[in-house]
Amino acid sequence: MELNLEITMESGQPPHFLWNCENGRFWRIVGGERRELWQEDGKLKWSEGFGEEAKHLLRSGDNLERICKAIGTDAVMRRAISRHRGLRITKNAPWETIVCFICSINNNIPRIRKMVQSLMVDGEVMPPEVMFAADLGGKKLGYRDKFLKATAEAAMSYDLSRVGRMEYENAKEALIEFEGVGPKVADCVLLFGYGFLEAFPVDVWIAREMKRGYGIEGERAIREFAKKRWGKFAGYAQQYLYCSARSR
DNA sequence: CTCCAGGTACCTT
DNA sequence: AAGGTACATGGA
Predict the structure, then answer these.
(1) CA atom of A119 to C1′ atom of C3, Å
(2) What predicted TM-score, i.e. pTM, was given to this entire model?
(3) How many Å apart are A108 CA and B1 C1'?
(4) Residue numbers 200-229 of A with CB closer than 7 A to any atom of strand C
(5) Distance (Å, whole) CA A38 – CA A108
(6) Is the dihedral of CA A133, A137, A139, A143 positive or negative?
(7) CATH 1.10.340.30 in chain A, residues?
(8) Alpha-carbon torsion A159, A100, A5, A199, what sign?
(9) What is the CATH number assigned to the segment(s) A94-193?
């Protein structure tokens, strides 16, 4: 599996907010167990018993070479890919992904991470029932606390796995019903939480990069262009562009 | 002081 | 569909 673990885990995807990094190893606690991930000579290593989950997290089934070949149809994208070799889309739990990206609203990565960490108990994001009942005051969430409360309450009586069985457009509409989930957050959740690789989240970095690289402006036009050019792998294209924009 | 950050909700054209 | 504005917070 082609992989650059460091770039992947620290590219603004959910693991960036949920996992920790210490001397080259990534770790988090799940169910009281410490899971670790690292690379040796490019080869992925994991702590005992964590192999299947690790492969799932890193979408080992994605043929990165084939995907990059499919989306690398112009100089801008090829350059983005070459500068971030081994960057993969990750697959995370839907609820954790929703929380991460509600926290991301009009926010920066270091602070998103702080907020998400403050919403974790025993290494995991508080489940909806707990979050709804929790006192979020003092966590410095800004106006996002009311979005989290409302969405947590709604999620208590909603089977989030349903979304994963819908078509992309319907799934997006369903997610936007939650307070604090708009088009951009929904696309992030669909991409990183449900594995819809056609999702193309448009944030300020992407908007900037699309104008710079392709001369395209406006959310509507950007999404149309992305769908036409990158189709079912638009999510990967987006992540390469995002990292390019941020490393500029 | 202003500007910005993986935007959304709500309003008016 | 497109364009405005308020909204919390902290760092540059």
Answers:
(1) 35
(2) 0.98
(3) 21
(4) 218-221
(5) 26
(6) positive
(7) 94-193
(8) positive
(9) 1.10.340.30
